[in-house]
Amino acid sequence: MKDNNLKIEQRMKNMKDFYVKTGNLIDKLPEAVPEDTRNMLKKVILGDKELKQLMDGIEAHRPPRIFMIGRTGMGKSSLINALCGSYVAKVSDTKSCTKGMDMYKCMDGDRVLMEICDTRGFAESEALDGEKSAEKMLIEQISEFSPDVVIFVLNCTHKDDVGSDVQFLKKLSKDYEDRNSLRLPIVCVVNKCDEMAPARLKKPSEYTTSKIEKINEVVQYYKEIIVKNGLKIDNIIPVSSLIDWQTPDGVEVPVEAIENLPQYDIDNLQMAFDGRYNIEELLNILEEAILDFEAQMGLRMAARLNDVVHRLGSHLVKIFSGISATVALTPIPLADIYVLVAIQSFMVCLIASLSGREISLETAKEFIFSMGGIVGAGNVFRLIAQQGTKLLNGLWPGAGSAVSASVAAFGTGAIGKAAIAYYIDDFTIEGAKKKFDEAKKEKRLKNEEPERLETVKGEA
Ligand SMILES: Nc1nc2c(ncn2[C@@H]2O[C@H](COP(=O)(O)OP(=O)(O)OP(=O)(O)O)[C@@H](O)[C@H]2O)c(=O)[nH]1
Ligand SMILES: [Mg+2]
User: Fold this and answer.
1) Could you write out the DSSP letters of every residue in 322-340?
2) pLDDT tens-digit profile of 37-48?
3) Which of 205, 344, 370, 455 has its C-alpha lying 20 to 30 A from 383's C-alpha?
4) What is the tens place of the pLDDT at every residue in 179-197?
5) What is the largest CA-CA distance in the chain?
6) Where are the alpha helices (DSSP H) in 102-207?
7) What spacing in Å lies between the alpha carbon of 361 and ligand 2's midpoint?
8) Which CATH class is domain 65-289?
9) Where are the domains of the chain?
10) Is the separation of the CB atoms in 422 and 363 below 8 Å?
11) pTM
12) 3-class DSSP state for residue 460?
């Protein structure tokens, strides 16, 4: 397993190495590419802050510090496993804590994935401690822990009185703000959504509309309490952390019995059933809420390294979609298509490097054109001149003489998804094209910018 980890870490280093070469590669583009276009490419790719942070984060990252608040049995420990996508062992810190509070590190092998400060709800810890200063002590210890984000775990089917916990969080965030002149990010998680009726439907893909509606009603209920109490939160999201675990030889083990297993089995537990709902979305929300870049990157890395590759891939796609949109906002006639193809080529190369493959910009360009049904596109400038609208419609459907920002962004998004399928998930080129077509359809269904699309179509 360790070897496998190393291999994937090597892939991330490959990606960074490719990124570092970007400026050089742009200089080496065919001579026909005008100076302005080169400068624009450098500006948008190398000047992109998010991309730079992502690359810097490959070397500089630390485990995020997460403060969990939620009563016993809400599923705090299960949520951490769900976020990491693996059964993470908990290693208790030697620090002595206030009763009702627990600080530990989550480990996968010898990697620290997250540092957790766990309280079982303020009402409960107060009852445990019984001292008047319990609240103050708790606040002091939490301040010392200095969390990157607070996760407030609630239950979807048992609507508890959460008033005292909300009040406590309010005091906590005020104290944090006073000490650090920084707002404390708080994300509220409504867990155990799978238990909402019909509770027998555990697979998120099988959730019925009425189940989802009921889940959303509970979210609304909690939201009102939080707002009424004047607690400012970053977001609230319903999830399920349900995972059934099995040993490598296929024996299913209830969570309560895992600690009794031999260490080898604990280290190599596999998912027997994955009932996780909205966990990817929660990770995105947490990523947005965490302000420290090194911790943000740490959160992205706090998964099985295989998942890390996927997560980084999706993040690249998001960044490059944004870059494409920016470029399309300031179009340079004709050449902007070249710029878009070049931007997408860099993205495809970076995704390929994550998969462990090293490809040239030329190969990436071939991949992009094959998605639009054009094979063997040698000279892009000549091709654009000859094929004009046909080429545009293959890659950015509905586009004619100009590519709108959203069309450029979703075109790059669709190419990115196809590249992940082809290079990371080992799909065939036909399989990748199917992904590309699906991603294009998704956009049509969402019907973004219908007016703009129609006008451009009319012009074409
Ligand atoms: N169906 C379902 N069960 C869950 C979910 N999350 C947790 N559980 C179960 O709920 C029980 C409690 O979960 P834990 O993760 O131990 O809860 P906790 O908040 O860490 O509890 P304490 O450590 O006592 O504070 C366990 O039996 C879990 O398997 C979920 O999303 N769906
Ligand atoms: Mg727990």
Assistant:
1) HHHHHHHHS--TTHHHHHH
2) 888 889 999 999
3) 455
4) 889 899 999 999 999 999 9
5) 81
6) 122-129, 134-145, 163-180
7) 48
8) alpha beta
9) 2-59+310-459, 65-289
10) no
11) 0.78
12) coil
